## 1
Amino acid sequence: MRLHSMGEQAFIERLKRHTSRPRGVIQGIGDDAAVMAWGHGRLLLFTTDMLVEGVHFRRGERDAEGIGHKALAVCVSDIAAMGGRPREAVVSLGAPADTRVSFLELLYKGILKAAHRYGASIVGGDTVRSPRLVISIALLGEVSKKDLILRKGARPGDELWVTGGLGGNPKGRILKITPRLAEARRLVKKFRPRAMMDLSDGLWTDVGNLSRASRVGARIYLGHLPVHPFAVREARRLKADPKMLALTGGEEFELLFAVSPSAGARLARAGRRALGVKISKVGEIVPRSFGIKVYAKGCVVKVKESAVWKHF
Amino acid sequence: MRLHSMGEQAFIERLKRHTSRPRGVIQGIGDDAAVMAWGHGRLLLFTTDMLVEGVHFRRGERDAEGIGHKALAVCVSDIAAMGGRPREAVVSLGAPADTRVSFLELLYKGILKAAHRYGASIVGGDTVRSPRLVISIALLGEVSKKDLILRKGARPGDELWVTGGLGGNPKGRILKITPRLAEARRLVKKFRPRAMMDLSDGLWTDVGNLSRASRVGARIYLGHLPVHPFAVREARRLKADPKMLALTGGEEFELLFAVSPSAGARLARAGRRALGVKISKVGEIVPRSFGIKVYAKGCVVKVKESAVWKHF
């Protein structure tokens, strides 16, 4: 069996079977970040993301800073999705021996600017030779016990919401992503979501991930999906349904979260003012036996597997 | 300027100028691991290492487990060199879409076996598509304040010691490395080194790194260097001086440490019994103005830059 036929999710599930959760580890493999008890009342969050030249970005002097920004921003998005705040990061960089030092300096400038913006610090790293540029950042975060939000915790009756617009990054190549750090903090403090994650694999797949972790099912209302302007344009070009692009897109790094009906009512009343960014109710949590279904005009829509975002 | 003409060390020095050390960070870029205050009396260690196919290993089903072992073991070596114990790790893996799942499972088996052996836990990761296999592991460690040993701290008059044999990994391709975790813990508890690091760039370069961090100079006695059996064989093949291979080798992952003369005398008396592994006194710390010099039969030996281990 090859990796692309198994898929990332199935591979991760298989790995999970080989690992045990040691003492002090509250959440291991299978959420946006790992959660560890460390000291009194504070939890340590730990996440990593890797960007590879030719897959996640093309090399070009112009984009060096953007690549650096994205490499850290995707990690910040993971920490945000747990309700936490970024802390220290280490940067592993693989680069061809003939890489211009000026290019790498711009790349680090992008990392450092993003670190400054989101309150992280670069404390170490490794620089190695590699035929292609590869950046892997590992980021620590912190969160108090009461602010921690996992993927699990959603209950039937909860409402499913997302921030921002969906489907705007169809090739995963956009570098200027904005992790929803401030929005997630506000959400946690004021609306206490029951489950949360960031959207990296597309709404369809990630509602599946959140539902699996929470052992629930979900209804998604296609008509309610907020379509990113880029997805509108892309849909016109492909003569496709923009709502379907919003459903199956990926790498938006928006927040997907489940809230109680009363918190949902407060979100609906506050609208954009709730978090300072557009928010949309996209569905509901239902019992697990119901599965995950997408509705359009009262009918169940079949989602083509071929349309769904895949890392492999 | 290209990376290979600048070199890794100069590049890191350049990066360091752009970073500031935030509150709570005791040691940032420039040691084996970063050190952060977290909770009462305990310190958090944080390190990362990246292995790239074709540079650090060749792919082959036979070696998958060994690659996984090495990917974690090099991080454990960093934590050991700070006097600490490994804790949680995250694994970023880049792999071609057509990689056999059985290969990746063996690779993770290698990581998990090494984790079990050295007391680490794999708590998360990222799996992405990449034209070549790349593994980047970030490992946390812990150490009490009194056990922390940095690269800085060596003083003139201290003795320089190493564990094991040197020059045995001339191409950096050996997968079965043994991080000196138990040895480092024993050393810290019983002999309290003033400065310590692991040997990844070769003795010559790393004595330079330790001396720079400690703002001291050093004398290395070529005749005292413990030569690894592989280096003896390699020297015969190349008709080279095995002691020079021991001086300029790299990736041995042995410990290099400076101890007070009295601790040095105790080490000399105990010999192999001190740490349960061969130890050798290889030099002395001298004032900074003296620089770093290698002696053989009372004369200063010139070290050819071309012979020195380089990552780029």
## 2
Amino acid sequence: MLFFYYICAKQVRMDNLKNRRTIRKYQKKDVSTDLLNDLFESAFRASTVGNMQIYSVIVTRDEERKAKLSPAHFNQPMVKEAPIVLTFCIDLRRFSKWCDQREAVPGYNNFEWFMTGAVDTLLAAQTFCVAAETRGLGICYLGTTTYNPQMIIDILELPKLVFPIATVTVGWPAENPAQVDRLPLEGIVHNEIYHDYTSKDIDRIYLYKESLASNKQFIIENDKKTLAQVFTDVRYKKEDSEAMSEILWQAMKKQGF
Amino acid sequence: MLFFYYICAKQVRMDNLKNRRTIRKYQKKDVSTDLLNDLFESAFRASTVGNMQIYSVIVTRDEERKAKLSPAHFNQPMVKEAPIVLTFCIDLRRFSKWCDQREAVPGYNNFEWFMTGAVDTLLAAQTFCVAAETRGLGICYLGTTTYNPQMIIDILELPKLVFPIATVTVGWPAENPAQVDRLPLEGIVHNEIYHDYTSKDIDRIYLYKESLASNKQFIIENDKKTLAQVFTDVRYKKEDSEAMSEILWQAMKKQGF
């Protein structure tokens, strides 16, 4: 009996992946370096192109540095309140340095490797998050990382060929939020070829999301006619993302890609 | 006893993440649609920006279509031999269509949203892979997706604002390969700021990789002086990735980003 308990305790319920929630409030309780390193061991087992592991992770625990990072993430409170902020970075620098030291001429300072590095980095980041959640930790991705890359580059002293692509706050949950909605599978999965959406498809796929009281409330609060307008006019405006595209591109160039 | 067995069978060993291997050979045995959809349910619970789920997945089971996809992936045998090939795509089209139908003006046809979409898509893709592996399936990422995007776009009939970013082959394992090496944690994790690598650091971090008999064999087989040269001169050449950067950029433009 104890033996079985031991086995089960070391395992993760498959259902965990389906029942997960993003956690934005954390207990004032440390996450040990041993646990963190254990999670990294899992994360870095994720698939990686040519076994090159073209990523680095910056661990921020220092209160002052978290305070500096906070504006780069539009002052989302998780940055200051989480015990750990992780910045997952594309890193072609380490590999290129190795090449330089081994009579090899690296050619990884271009857009193709930026994208390949992004894939590599994000597979490791997401594996970290799954591993963290199976140990009872809560995580939150900050989409703001690609909005203000230059600020993050400066604060974390990222040199050339290193680029921040995802930030994750990590800690022991101090909330148990309700699970949010997701689109139905038929709205996302295509068999054999992409089946373009008819207007009836769109209506059906977004029906449940639009029916939610919380989403109806957003429309009222923002004085809009539709939920889509809350996205286009309030949360994610065209002019903002066009400016950010330029900032992102300039930061990539400056980092040597 | 049976009860415990039942619980354990529905769970995933934490160690699975650490013990994982990429699987390139598959049994000639189908993966059911029910199982596939169950895995998608887990995958689509991954974190997603603004709960927008800006991705689509194309499921390829048809032999003819797999044969067509094969050259886009440099004829890697997994494409034809796996029962399922999944192409994970950034998809700003569905969301933009919804906006169009709801009196909202979408502004997601730019580089910032391409990158944000890439993050969204890859978190879902990797969660799919973890879920698949916990059920005993084997997976392999094909890094070739961003090398030949236009071929894949044409074969899978991807319309504007849809872009392939990761391909995963999935099936029941027909091999049990040895686990490959990984860099030591200290080579990847940085505390507080990026600590640039000295030449001694590089030597130490790559020591184990360079000591492996299999890697020494690659040097001999390719008639090179160092393992790094196998990467720069044989596997991932500068001129190839520069040409691919241009192809990738052109394909992005053509898809409306």
